[in-house]
Amino acid sequence: MRIIAGEMRGRILKAVEGMMTRPTSDKVKGAIFNVLGDRVQDARVLDLFSGTGNLAFEALSRGAREAVLVEKSHNAHNVIRENMDRLGIGSKTKVLLVDAFKYLENNPDEVFNLIFLDPPYHKDLAAKSLAVLSCSSNLETNGVIIAETAKDEQLDVTDNTSHPLEVRKISLYGDTKVWYIQRMDI
């Protein structure tokens, strides 16, 4: 696993041992950032269920202003910190050892341009996260949530929320489905 573009291109990231995390492949990561394009520049990024920090670190390499990484696993949290230190980006990075839902509940005023949402598959965590985010102010108007799910999982984005979300694009890469969901201006 490595940073594939930007100022830290080619830098190797440590992975979490075992099968508890599923880092985004370089192919999928490259496709995500090609779709996002210039949206990454100067963005404030939230990486929920961050695992190794792969997506947030790629965003920082491509010009994001800062990133908040949320992970509840002690092992993954330690790997994120080690990767952050290897990359020398501590001043742009906040790493929190906390459950994603607790973070959202306790930080309703934190606003982000991009939110990466890559929870474990088949546990309904992406859908639950979207339900919370659609009722919060965490995503700026016209901000984007990039959610990864298994290819057979569905996400329902309803209109009955205080901050409407709209699925703008869905891409399939092998067993991974990537959802691009935008907060709409009301």
TrEMBL record:
Superkingdom of source: Bacteria
Cited Gene3D superfamilies: Vaccinia Virus protein VP39
GO molecular function: methyltransferase activity; nucleic acid binding
UniProt keyword Transferase, yes or no: yes
Any GO BP: rRNA methylation
Alphabetic keyword roster: Methyltransferase, Transferase
Pfam family, one: Cons_hypoth95
Keyword DNA repair recorded: no
Protein name as annotated: RNA methyltransferase, RsmD family
Organism expressing this protein natively: Desulfosporosinus acidiphilus (strain DSM 22704 / JCM 16185 / SJ4)
